Amino acid sequence: MSFERAILQDASPPRARRASAIRPLLVRLLSLIAVLLLWAVASAWADSRLFPGPQEVLTFAARDIASGEMLGQLGITLARVAASFFIAFVIGSAIGLVMGRVRLADHVLDPWLILLLNIPALVVIILAYVWMGLTEAAAITAVALNKIPNVAVTLREGARALNPGLDDMAAAFRMPASDRLLHVVLPQLQPYFAAAARSGIALIWKIVLVVELLGRPNGVGFQLNLYFQLFDVTGILAYTLAFVLVMLCIELFLVQPLEKRATRWRGKPA
Amino acid sequence: MRNAQHGGGASLLDIRIDSKIYAGANGEPVEAVRGFRLRLEEQSFTALLGPSGCGKTTILRTIAGLDPSYQGHLHWHAPPRIGFVFQEPNLLPWRTVRQNIELTKAEEFGAADVDELADRLGLSELMNRFPRELSLGLARRVSLARAFASAPSVLLLDEPFASLDEGTAGRLRALLRDVRARWRVSTLLVTHNLREAIELADRLVLLTPRPARVLADLPIALPPSTRGPAQIETLRTKLIGDYAALFAEAGLGVQPSQ
After folding, report:
1. Is B66 touching A (CB cutoff 8 A)?
2. Of the residues A21, A228, B8, B198, which has the maximum number of CB atoms within 10 A of its CB?
3. Is this complex scored with an ipTM above 0.90?
4. Interchain proximity A174–B90, CB inside 8 Å
């Protein structure tokens, strides 16, 4: 378990534990500062346009944020991440659930999944652009196709692990199908959804950048390509770090609190 | 609820299971039930008594419609509503006790009924707890409450007192008798414990070892109010004495503790 989660899950730690929890935070902070210092020193020593220091990258980012340029590009990329994440999640979950519950479906679809899992993301992107044109739909489809197999495989495990006792309960009491799905099946799959979401967010935004670089006229990936043509490393680093920051914030302030809320009934881990 | 029709003796269900086969651990076919016939009366409390693994649970699951692959026929005289208490409590761990009871609650079982039911079962203080905070005995009570709140026309109990210490099991039996006196419902109990069957049921159906069929169908003429430990023990000794051969055939004759 990561350190941040340990903090989040422990609502009122005894004083001794709190002290021991703060120390690693300090160490981590110092380590981060050390990296920045090392970067600054190295770039000063190199003294090259191709290796800017942290202050130059920060200045660049501040200027682009002030002009509204950077936030716009971040927003566009984020929207693509969200759209493809949503599509991959809905389709992947449905496929995974059916595969986990119906043996025939598992046998039929399993080779497709293995195939898809082993096709490089780049190939899927190129084919989507070739067949669908350089369109938004092609971009989103390509990203979603890359993620669907992962979601399906994860949720298949979840569907296989469903508690048959709860199934019997729902059947004996003649629960309507919608109630069964909502109150019996989906809550059992929550950990699998969480796992798929975590790995999904990490994977998807990286693929979205490639998709943008290859065939979209905007977004962070497009900007990276632009600055690459100009050999503007400052711009590349500014946009990359800004987007990493955005994704970290989503993980920290959206995914983790949601997960914590959804697992309240579990109580504190032993 | 059906608490108006006392002891009518009307038929509730005719069960005929000619054969039920399931795949054993190594995939080989195992016949769990063969030639099982039973008529259940409205408002009756029937105990199916048989040795462990004889197919009792299979019969119960078949009646509940959980296992459609069998040869035979269930003839319900009115569309049934099933209340089931499983061996495992099978509570939803992400719902509180109240939310678990309310999920399958019948509409005509009102909020006041839920409160009274919780009160009778000693659950009033626990309604906002999650299942992981409950002992097995308490979880079984919640499972019982859930079944009663679904206003069933037939209540199926699958070894609901198993793996409890005798004190806890005895309290739970007393609670079941109390709640069932308040909300009368036809009940079918599966058990391997003769004492338990005598304490609760008005009819004892003795089953053979697997494949299960009916070996004997005995009324228990003791009025429920007079079933103290001494009377239960007396009747138990008498039954075992009178039907020694049957109990031996059922595989229950040599267990003095039961």
Report:
1. yes
2. B198
3. no
4. no
